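Title: Prediction job returns without error message
Component: structure pipeline
Severity: low
Priority: P3
Assignee: unassigned

Description:
Job completed but the reporter wants confirmation the result is attached to the right record. Sequence as submitted:
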Amino acid sequence: MNIDYILSSKDKLTELVKKNGIKTWNELTDFIKNLPYGRNKNRIDFELVISEKKGTCSSKHAILKRIADLNNIPNINLIVGIYRMNQYNTPKIGNELKDHSIEFIPEAHCYLKINGKRIDLTTRTSEFKKIEKDIIQEKEIKPEQVAEYKIEYHKDYIKHWLINEKMKFSFDQIWKIREKCIENLTD
C-alpha cells in the first residue's frame, strides 16, 4: 500500500470517516485494522464499523472497498475466500475443533486484493500469509454481498464438504461448532 490517496468524496460514508480525522486511504486502512474484532448490529450498515468502533473481516473489508469505490481508488477488490480454518492458522478459535476431533472447518473469510496482492486488515495482527496455503477457493464480491450472499455461499460450501468428506456431523452441529470458534475470536 505504498501509494496513498486523499479521501475527497463528499458522500455520507466518506464524510463520516473524515469526521474521525481520517484524510487518506492509508490512514483509513490503519484505522480499520486497529479496530477490535466484533460483529456489528447490522451486517450491511457499514457506518456501524465507524460508529461502533469494531467489525469483522466482512464489515471491515466491505467498508474499505465501498470507500475505495466512492473515492475512485483503483485496483481494490473485495474477496471472499474459503480456507481450512484450524488452530494453527487461526489460534484464537480455541479447542473447539480438537474437542470434536475435527482437523478443520471450511471458513469464509473476506480480505482485499490491492493491485493483485491479498491484504488482510481484519486486525492489527492479521496476515494473509497465515491462511494462504489453506485457501480452498476464492471469488470477488461486492460490498453488499458480505451479508446474505456470503453466508449462503459459506453454508452451501460446508453442506457439500460434509457430504464429500462423509463427515459424522450434521450441518447444524458443524455450524454450531464454527459459531463457537468465531465467538472465541471476539474474546
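Comment from assignee: result matches the submitted record. The mean pLDDT is 95.
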